[in-house]
Description:
mainly alpha
Amino acid sequence: MVKRLTDNWVYGGFLAGVLLLIVSPLIVKGWPRALVAVFLLLPAYMVHQYEEHDGDRFRRFVNEKMGEGRVGLSPMAVFVINVPGVWGAIAAALYLAAAVDAGLGLIASYLVVVNGVVHAAPAVATRSYNPGVVTAVVIFLPLGIYSVLEIQAAGGGTALNHAIGLAVAVGIHVAIVAHATRRKAGIALA
């Protein structure tokens, strides 16, 4: 059962993302715009993950391009990164934005923006497709920037909140690259 989940999470995630988008007007009715913007990042990420991970595209791409054919990312690592990692980080940012400070929603905002840049920059540099680049450019960059602007307008855009959001987002991406690099070198266990 665990293998089926780690191998097929992206399909349930995509369908859940579409459903969340459909019912979001009911869920977020009466919420502040900044909180709505942070909430929308989760289903947007789920849709992006379908383009990125359908048919194990991203893992194979990373292993072929960065890993020189060696396994840098395992199916379990991709699952952990995306389900508890990404979905969990966005859920935590949403709760923190609602309960503590709207500016902590910047964690989710910058996670989306950084991921968008991580997809777009290599695509421009190499003039080639990478799994996830279309939704990164079409959905992530505009929605991520919109959420940053909404949080700023709500008064949550302090320098500290921007620093926290950016540090968490960059840290998550650096950790993924470090994991893949260590695993490729035979150091990581998962």
